[in-house]
Amino acid sequence: MTKLLSEFAIGESGKIVKVNGDGAVRRRLFDMGVTPGATVMLRKKAPLGDPIEVNLRGYELTLRKTEAACVEVELS
Amino acid sequence: MKTFALAGNPNCGKTTLFNALTGSTAHVGNWPGVTVDKREGVYRGGSEKVNIVDLPGIYSLSPYTPEEVISRNFILDEKPDGIINIVDATNLERNLYLTTQLLEMDVPLIIALNMMDEVEKAGDSIDVKALESAIGVPVVAISALRKKGIKELMDRAIAMNSERKGVTVLGKSLAPKIERAKQFFAATDVSSPLFHAIKMLEGDEIELKHAGAQELFNEISAGQDMEAAVADERYTYISEHFSAAKNKKEKAALTKSDKVDKVLTHRIWGLPIFAVILLVIFHLTFSEDLLYIGAIAEAAGSPLPTFEDIGFAISEDTEIYENFGIALAACFYDGAVFSPGVILTNLLNLVLGYISYGIGLGVEAAGAADWAVGLINDGIVGGITAVLGFLPQILTLFLFFSILEDTGYMARVAFILDRIFRRFGLSGRAFMPMIMGFGCSLPAMINTRTLADEQERTATIRVIPFFSCGAKLPILTAIAGGFCALVGFDNVDLITYSMYLLGIIVAIVSVIVMRSTTMRGEVPPFIMELPAYHMPGFKNLMLHLWDKTKHFVKKAFTIIFASTIIIWFLQSFRWNWTFIADGSIQDSILASIGQFIQPLFTPLGFGSQLNEYGWVFAVAAITGLIAKENVIATFSVLAAMFVANFEGTEEGVAEAIVMIENTGITAPALISFIMFNMTTIPCFAAVATAKAELPKGRFGWTILFWLVTSYIVGTVVYTVGGWWWTLFIWLAVFAAIGTVIVLNNTGKIKLPSLRRRKG
Fold first, then answer.
1. What phi and psi values does residue A58 have, to the nearest 5 degrees?
2. Which of A5, B205, B239, B637 could bridge to A68 as Cys pair (CB 3.0-4.6 Å)?
């Protein structure tokens, strides 16, 4: 089942299948290692629910929900 | 002399390595056109001296942030003799992503594998030899913090071949495409054709601008998503080859950093903990009653004695020089224990006091003319001490915020607060500079360097002075005190508090207006690493502070100093160029300037409606430009016009009352005067900092912005305070302006286009 990263619950993880979005945001996601094939896990949400923190390629990355909505993930 | 560039991700220990390499030879400048620090220094530990240039911390060589463009252009255009790529061994996979791009450039490359000790401590291991043979460039394990492996790193760097051809890790499926693009760039005169070729395949804006590149790109990519393909291949290559080099043990349940993080960014406790940390920092920097010991003792019924209580008066300037012991002791305690920030300020001011006293005696002994004595004592020495006097608290505040930054907590603060700030068109990172503004605008403005987006940065720098700084507090307390005496209202606290609040509201409204008109732009993306927490290095903190001190002192002795002398001249001379020796400032050039501009302040309540002495407010506002405390100090001088043998009070309330009684100013106009001073052009030190920190071409507009904002704020406060029903007129006006902006932005109506300049 695929799901947008922005809709993840805490603790859920999966494999990225597609990264959408426009120029700068997409490029930045790629540069930070958010590429198809990588495994992500939602670690936590900020006190107000947004942004979110994910574990990816052995480090912690934070991004907003709007940006996480660009990332399609196959749930594991 | 050879030049090496240091390149690497943020938080990989690059600055630490740079400090270890260059020590005291380092100096900080700006990269041309942008306010990103450029650090340079000389390494002397090897067979020859080497020039080291520290490139900004970057994750990639894409053209989207100024840091990335700077690094890319430096390597391609300045052609350093080599790149030292510092790689965080604890986060190999993401760090090597940049390495794969650096490999594609025709520049010698050496990898400094940092934090190997951390890796070993965690029970993991990395096979350095295997890594070196896989990548094909030298790899040296180091610990920048413990200065291990640095000599070997530099020896091998210096011994590197001066030529290296770029190689790529991108594999078979892309190879023909890369080859075609490379042929294209090889035919032009650019260096590193391979690098340009691959960047073009990624759809890089800069590369597509080459003549013919766009057409070739369309042909080669044939609609395929090359950008994703290239990024994917890089990471695939890295994980295939270097997971082997790194022999990772199963990760323990929770590292220490994870445990700390769990508390600090807790869903419920995250925000309160942050508020407490902030309070502690401000308390340690500005409080004159450490840990509230004095207040507690007083509440308990046995207040701690002041020096005056036990028979030593030290409030009079002259006595300081007669009783050094008491003066020194009073730097630490006077009825309450002071905070470290206040103690340092007192100590510095004590020293400066002696120096200016000594200079004063010297000048008098030399028999200089009155005006020369005045120039040296009040103009030069007074000006310098006024500005340098801020230094201890600025640095203390800086130190605390540097610690928060270095430990990795600052990134979490941005994480916690981003949601709130996005409403105003800012990112969570803008919060820190703003809150620092309550202490002092200078470190606050410098700290906006953490904001990547220029529009966001400009907007933030402009509103920082609205967060009322420590030096503006005397204006508040004195005039609010006078105000309370005038109207018979007994809550100075409430007035002061409302003024602070009003400042914040003005800041928020200004930001929203700017972000939807002249400083328009998307909220920049918030995709960043949350680095693991670690202890900050003492040496790094000190070097950081030393940088700031040099920066500030240099500024203090140029622009701030010059402006201070000008104001001194204006208030000390008559139009006929004679010196005013007896302090009757009402005859000065400044006073007539005050009289001249006084009518301008009529809508604000302290203009033509006041009696013939109404100009004192205009004059005080001008002297406030040197340092905001001067507003009240000027009142004190001017009070002598009205009251013979005027005795001032420490809080300046008596001064304010004299002014109120003798000028016929009304209560709403007083509040308007406070708000005008809080939101107008800040002190010269802050103005100079703003000039240095703002993008090119924004400084003049910023001055105008401050003037216009303070004028509007003062007018609104005065009219609404005087005639309550004008509130509805203002609301209607603002609503109309707001509607026009919204309609214009949504494309419903078309205003003649607002100037939109590019930095």
1. 80, 15
2. A5
- Report which secondary-structure segment, H or E, holds B37: strand B37-43
Most A CBs within 10 A among B61, B237, B415, hence the mutation to make, goes to B415
Specify the pLDDT at position B757.
42
Residues 31-60 of A with CB under 8 A from B: 31-38, 44-51, 53, 57-60
How far does the CA of residue B255 sit from the closest CA of chain A (Å)? 12
Residue B136: how many CB atoms within 10 A of its CB?
Answer: 12
Q: Which of B404, B153, B85 is nearest to B273 (CA)?
A: B404
Buried b vs exposed e over B439-469: b needs ≥16 C-beta within 10 Å?
Answer: bbbbbbbbbbebbbbbbbbbbbbbbbbbbbb
Q: Cα distance from B268 to chain A (closest Cα, Å)?
A: 6
Say how many C-beta atoms besides its own lie within 10 A of residue B636's C-beta: 20
Asked if the bond preceding B63 is cis, omega within 30° of 0, the reply is no
- Of the candidates A49, A68, A52, which has an alpha carbon nearest to the alpha carbon of residue A3? A68
Cα B727 off chain centre by: 36
What Å distances lie between residue B355 and B377, B385, B565, B649, CA to CA? Answer: 11, 10, 19, 25
Statement: residue B35 has pLDDT above 70: no
Closest CA to A20 of A68, A75, A74, A76: A68
Cα distance between residue B363 and residue B89, in whole Å:
62
- Each residue's pLDDT tens digit, B433-484: 888 888 788 888 888 887 878 888 899 999 999 998 877 877 888 888 888 8
Please calculate the CA angle B82-B84-B89 and round it to the nearest 5 degrees: 155
Are B209 and B121 contained in the same domain?
A: no
Homologous superfamily of A2-75: Ferrous iron transport protein A (FeoA) (2.30.30.90)
Supply B567's token pair: 């104001």
User: Measured between alpha carbons, how far is residue B295 from residues B292, B337, B495 in Å?
Assistant: 5, 10, 22
Residue closest to B557 by CA, chosen among B420, B392, B391: B391
Q: How far apart are CA B510 and CA B426, in angstroms?
A: 12
Same domain, B208 and B346: no
* Closest-CA residue of chain A to B411: A62
Residue B697, φ and ψ in degrees, nearest 5: 80, 0
In terms of domains, do B151 and B74 share one?
Answer: yes
Residue B752's pLDDT is what?
A: 67
CA distance B151 to B452: 35
Which H or E run includes B679? Answer: helix B667-679
pTM of the model: 0.81
Across the interface, whether the CB atoms of B97 and A31 are under 8 A apart is answered: yes
Both B73 and B188 in one domain: the answer is no
**For residues B364 and B140, what is the distance between their CA atoms, to the nearest angstrom?**
65
Q: What count of residues does chain B have?
A: 759
Contact (CB, 8 A) for A53 and A45 = yes
Domain hosting B147: range is: 2-159
In this structure, how many other beta carbons lie within 10 angstroms of the beta carbon of residue B275?
A: 10
Domain boundary among B371, B394, B417: B394
Residues β-bridged to residue B511: none
State how many domains chain B has: 3
Residues in A 5-24 with any Cβ partner in B closer than 8 A? 19, 23-24
Both B150 and B196 in one domain: the answer is no
Provide mean pLDDT across the span A24-37: 89
Long-range contacts of B366-374 (CB under 8 A, 24+ apart): B369/B579, B370/B579, B370/B581, B371/B572, B371/B573, B371/B579, B374/B568, B374/B572, B374/B579, B374/B581
